[in-house]
Amino acid sequence: MTLTDTNKTLVKRFYQAVDSGDVAAVEELFALEWENIDPALPPMAGLEGARSLVQMFTAGFPDFSSKIELMAAESDRVAVRALHTGTHRGEFMGIPATGKRVSVHATGIYTCKDGKLVQNRVVFDAFGLLQQLGVVSF
To answer: How many CA atoms, within 13 angstroms, populate the side-chain half-sphere of residue 124?
Structure first.
């Protein structure tokens, strides 16, 4: 298996962990120096930050699911475009449950080192999510 194949497998496993809220996978997937760079989310770093990231989506959206639509890899980086869906049944980023079904696209570039994630650089349609939850209108 090539390095890019190994890194793509790692990123796919990351999405599976997030979809299931599998915090037990954190030590397997994330490096100690991991950091999340996403302007729509609070700062997260290290294994505790990774646990927060893995848990936050299924806490707010118990049926959270990701569909990878596009994946490309080169060297230590993997780029992904994904569609995320779920039903807002729990608090998410201070927003009480609305019961609404949402669908949001995200694009991420993941940096891998020695078989672990060291950086997630993600942008997702946060405004679209807020619109779908009825928090903002346009």
So the answer is: 21
